[in-house]
Specification:
The chain is built from six helices and seven strands. It is of the alpha/beta class and 174 residues long. It has one domain: Vaccinia Virus protein VP39 (Rossmann fold, 3-Layer(aba) Sandwich). It has a seven-stranded mixed sheet with strand order 3-2-1-4-5-7-6, with helices on both faces. A hairpin with a 5-residue loop joins β6 and β7. α1 packs parallel to α2. The structure holds S-adenosylmethionine. The site of S-adenosylmethionine has 20 residues, from α2 and β2.
Length: 174
């Protein structure tokens, strides 16, 4: 993750005064640390990943960064299995950095999870320039284009594509 993307995540979490954030794709915890820094001191990050080893690594990284263990809830599993179990309108921000093929479905779930005024964020919207490349592209890129179209046309969302890192697509839910 680029420093610009990390700073944008902190900013967004602070802007919505985030008490509850859902993250899809825990990875090694880099984005989680940025989100935790921007959230309220009593905020809880719920983070989902199918790889237990990744979550174990992130747990250690959060501890090393000085966050108490009760600031993060680790849920092992695939996003589309786990997200339906999370509370409607219970989240201030949803950060999506899991399987690119599933991004359109993450948007649908995020709209249910977010409170009005909450923000959904997608990492990697540029796909290293392939999103706007007119040559043949893999399904992953076609799914990203589908996501961008849906977000742009939604009456429920106020979007902006931030040119940080590999493109950070953000949208506020009205
Ligand atoms: C790019 S990495 C995330 C990096 C992380 N945000 C960070 O900053 O360290 C993508 C992660 O998504 C996870 N992932 C893959 N498929 C997923 C799915 N269906 N649901 C949730 N997470 C998934 C992978 O295991 C991997 O850890």
């Amino acid at each position: 993750m680029s420093p610009g993307t990390g700073a944008a995540l902190r900013l967004l979490a602070a802007t919505v005064d985030a008490k509850a954030v859902a993250e899809i794709g825990t990875g090694c915890g880099v984005s989680g640390i940025h989100l935790l820094h921007g959230m309220r001191p009593d905020g809880v990050l719920t983070t989902v990943d199918p790889e237990p080893e990744h979550q174990q690594f992130a747990r250690q990284a959060f501890r090393a960064a000085g966050f108490a263990s009760n600031r993060a809830r680790f849920i092992p599993g695939r996003a589309l299995d786990v997200l339906p179990r999370l509370a409607d309108a219970g989240y201030d921000l949803v950060y999506c950095d899991g399987d690119r093929l599933e991004y359109p479905e993450y948007l649908a779930e995020s709209l249910r999870l977010l409170r009005p005024g909450g923000v959904v964020v997608f990492e990697g919207a540029f796909a290293n320039g392939r999103t706007v490349d007119s040559g043949p592209q893999p399904t992953e890129v076609l799914r990203l284009r589908e996501l961008l179209r849906t977000v742009r046309e939604s009456q429920e969302l106020v979007p902006s594509l931030l040119p940080v890192g590999d493109g950070l697509l953000c949208a506020v839910k009205r």
